[in-house]
From TrEMBL:
A single MF term (Gene Ontology): monooxygenase activity
PANTHER family assigned: ABM DOMAIN-CONTAINING PROTEIN (PTHR33336:SF3), QUINOL MONOOXYGENASE YGIN-RELATED (PTHR33336)
Gene3D superfamilies, alphabetized: 3.30.70.100
Keyword Hydrolase: no
Domain ABM: 2-90
PROSITE patterns associated with the record: ABM
Keyword match Oxidoreductase: yes
Pfam families to which the protein is assigned, alphabetical: ABM
Source organism per UniProt: Streptomyces mashuensis
Keyword vocabulary terms for this entry: Monooxygenase, Oxidoreductase
Superkingdom assignment: Bacteria
Entry protein name: Antibiotic biosynthesis monooxygenase
Length: 108
């Protein structure tokens, strides 16, 4: 699986509406056959930063994603919303998605 984490630091005026701004991009990516996960979270330390966790079933699925029309469209408008170049971690890992954490389970 291709596992990607991206930190987006936004211009302050773009922070509140970010999830609405990326909704179409997010929905289109989640609909890709090779997409395993595409999850946005807002930083608890910086209200202008969002973290995107992405997973793709294979390198080919990741390549299809970056060559998609919705990816190109998002890359065309996002520079107007970001305050700095996003930071990224992109690695290939074993597995096909989330696993259960062995050290912690709910009580009762």
């Amino acid at each position: 699986m291709i596992f990607i984490v991206v930190k987006f630091t936004l211009k302050p005026e773009c922070s509140e509406g970010w999830l609405d701004s990326v909704r179409e991009f997010t929905e289109a990516t989640r609909a890709e056959p090779g997409n395993v996960m595409f999850e946005w979270s807002r930083s608890v330390d910086n209200p202008h930063q969002y973290v995107l966790v992405e997973g793709f079933a294979s390198p080919e699925a990741g390549e299809e994603h970056v060559n998609s029309e919705h990816f190109r469209t998002a890359m065309a408008w996002m520079p107007d919303h970001i305050a700095e170049t996003p930071q990224i971690i992109n690695v290939e890992i074993p597995g096909q998605g989330w696993s259960e954490m062995a050290e912690l389970t709910p009580r009762g």
